[in-house]
Every structure is written in C-alpha cells, then in structure tokens.
Write a structure and sequence with these properties.
single chain; alpha+beta; conserved putative lor/sdh protein from methanococcus maripaludis s2 fold; six-stranded antiparallel β-barrel; 5 helices; 21 strands; about 30% helix; Membrane fusion protein (Multidrug efflux system); MdtA-like_C; transmembrane transporter activity; RND_pump_MFP
C-alpha cells in the first residue's frame, strides 16, 4: 500500500513540473525567434546600396537615314541591229571589251549595195545631162516647158536615188551607237541578217555612271512628308540629296551618288514608290542587276533623344523598357517607344526626356523603388550627345 502511495505522489510531482516547464519552453522559443528576426533585420540594414552605371540623356540634332533595297540599272543600253539585208563578212570587236561610240562592229557584204550606188551615180549623170540640154532648148522655145520640167524632176529623183544608195552602202558597216561595255555576239561570220530583225546582233551597256533604283513604301513617304511639314524634320540642305550605297556583301561603296527623281505613281501590287539615284562607276565595280542597299538622308530631327542599346530591354509583352534613376536616387521602370537604331543607340519617340538618367550597368539587381548609387556608365561609348559625367553630379547633389 505504501509503495502505491509513493508512486502516485511521484507521478503528480512529475506532472506539475511539466506544467511549469511548458510556458518556459514557449517563452524561450519566442525569444529565440525574436532574436533571430532581429539579426536578420540587422543584416538587411547592413546590406550595401547597389551601384549602377547611368547616362544622362540630352536632346540633339540627328540626321535620319533610311536603308532601302534596290537594284542597279545601266545608264544606257543599246541593242545593235542591222539596217540592211546581207551576209556578215566580219566581226570587228572582242566580246566583253569596252567600245567607243562610232567604232565599227560588223561588216556586211557590201557588193550589191556598191553596185546599186554605182548604178545610181550613172543614172544621175544621164539625168543631169538631159536637164542641162532641155534648159538651153526651152530658152529657145525648142522644147515645151512641160518637157523641161519633167527633165528637172528626173534629175532630182536621180539625186535622191544616189543618196539612198549611199546610205544603204554605209549601213553595211555597223557602228557602235554609244560607248560602253559590249556583250557577246549573237551571230557569226557568214550569217544572214535582215533589216529590222527582232534579234539584236549584240548589246552595248554604258556603266559609268550607273542608276540605282530603290523602293520605298508609300506609308513611309507620307510619314516623312508629315514630319517635314510639322517641323519635326528639316531638310539637310538645298540641291540634290546625297545617297550612300552598300554592296551585296555588306561593304560600303566608295563613292556617293545623288538622288535624281521619285516616281509619281504607287505600285498597286507592292504599295511602294521607286526612287532613282545616280552613282559614278569609273572602275565598273557596279554591274546592272546587282542587289544593293541605298542609304538616303530623310532629314534632320532637331530635338532627338538617343538612349544606349545597353539600357533598353523588353518586358513580358515585348515592349521596350528602361530603368531610370529619379531625383531621390530611387529607380523606376519606364516603357518607351523607339523608332530605329542609330549606331549603338535607339532613337526614342516617347517615354524619355532630356535630363533622364538611364541605367546601363547593374540592371539585374534592380527592383522598383529601391535606392541606388548612380555612377557614370563605363559600358557606353560616349557619342551622339550622351552625357555620362552628369550622372555623378546629379548623384552627389
């Protein structure tokens, strides 16, 4: 009995001790958690303010260029055809060589035409003698006036026949109508040719200067005219506009051309307008039919805003955004509207203004509203009016 009483007393004491210890354990746990949270807050408070590289934007005049696709076209093209019938006796040029205007290219058999010329000359002499005789007789009233008039008419007809025979004889020698590069011959010696035949004997192409025909969309042309009219753009100057050229392999053509004219109608199929430029081509580097890209000056935007490409990213919708450092050195993300690339920058139409500090370094650590230390950007080549020194002055104020 005594042992049972002792056991019951011991269990009661143990239960009382557990009840007393439970609040103490809870209190210790809470205290530990509070201490841990305090340590974390101290660590957060001790975290350094992130540094970012920025550029300060400024307005500036910028010449806008348009790169338009196009093809080269010969300045002159002459298809050489025979003017008389006959057999080709000689070809007097080298295929692919340069020829000059007036150079003989072919010789057509001239025997029948020379005989016709000699016959016409003989008929002319006979008609001339008859006209001279009748002129004396009509003065003495020995022949009628009608007979004399007929003799003079025959004389003039004989003169015309001689001229015709001479022209046909000259046509047996085929000359180059223009200077330029001559192509292959479509016929050989011994071939029969006819006057006005459809097939050309050869083709001569004048390569210097050379045309470049490019296409521009009608909507883009309307936009440019509106911007020029509103004053957003101004022309680059008087006279013919200068045009640059990039070849098929991407290299720049050494010589600049001039804009000659623009078509007055829009192609219904493509909705584009053809613009023609003229380029010097003394070395014949440009050949007809080559694909090229022409750079045309559109005009000057007087108050352009340029932002480095390193500072522009895309949001989840694909729209361009930038991080901007505010006056209190907090950052915010802005959505912008860009027009085109100019060098290593974007031309901005909306969303930024002069004096904005755009982050180009340290973007990965940014969150909206956090404080930063703005330093001049080191990853941006300072050109086109971008100011990196102003960033340090704004940060220090």
């Amino acid at each position: 009995m005594d042992s049972e009483i002792k056991s019951s007393r011991k269990k009661a004491l143990t239960s009382q001790a557990a009840v007393v210890m439970r609040p103490l354990l809870i209190a210790c746990s809470v205290a530990g958690a509070l201490a841990l949270a305090g340590c974390e807050k101290k660590q957060e408070a001790a975290a350094p303010v992130p540094e970012v590289g920025v550029v300060t934007l400024a307005v500036q005049p910028v010449t806008l260029n348009a790169m338009l696709p196009g093809r080269t076209n010969a300045w002159r093209v002459a298809e050489v055809r025979p003017q008389v019938n006959g057999v080709i006796k000689k070809r007097l040029f080298t295929e692919g060589a340069d020829v000059h205007q007036g150079q003989q290219l072919y010789q057509i058999d001239d025997a029948p035409y020379r005989a016709a010329y000699d016959k016409a000359q003989a008929a002319l002499m006979s008609a001339q003698n008859l006209a001279q005789r009748d002129a004396k007789l009509v003065a003495d009233n020995a022949v009628s006036r009608q007979q004399y008039d007929d003799a003079m008419s025959s004389y003039r007809q004989a003169q015309a026949d001689v001229e015709t025979a001479k022209v046909n004889l000259d046509y047996t020698r085929v000359y180059a109508p223009i200077s330029g590069r001559i192509g292959r011959s479509t016929i050989t010696e011994g071939a029969l040719v006819t006057s006005g035949q459809a097939q050309a004997l050869t083709v001569i192409t004048q390569l210097d200067p050379i045309y470049v025909d490019v296409t521009q969309s009608s909507t883009e042309m309307l936009r440019l005219r509106k911007e020029l009219k509103s004053g957003q753009l101004r022309t680059t100057g008087a006279g013919d506009a200068s045009v640059g050229l990039a070849l098929e392999d991407g290299t720049a053509y050494a010589r600049s051309g001039v804009l000659k004219f623009s078509e007055v109608t829009v192609d219904e199929g493509t909705g584009s307008v053809t613009v023609r430029a003229e380029f010097p081509n003394p070395e014949h580097d440009l050949l007809p039919g080559m694909f090229v890209r022409a750079s045309l000056d559109e005009g000057v935007r007087n108050a352009a805003i340029l932002v480095p490409q390193q500072g522009v990213s895309r949001d989840t919708t694909g729209k361009p955004v930038v991080w901007v450092v505010n006056a209190d050195n907090t950052v915010q993300q802005k959505q912008i509207v860009v027009d085109r690339t100019i060098g290593n920058t974007w031309l901005v139409n909306q969303g930024l203004q002069a004096g904005d500090r755009v982050v180009t370094e340290g973007v990965q650590r940014l969150q909206p509203g956090i404080k930063v230390v703005a330093k001049p950007a080191s990853n941006v080549h300072v050109d086109l009016g971008l100011d990196t020194s102003a960033a340090a002055q704004a940060n220090g104020s």
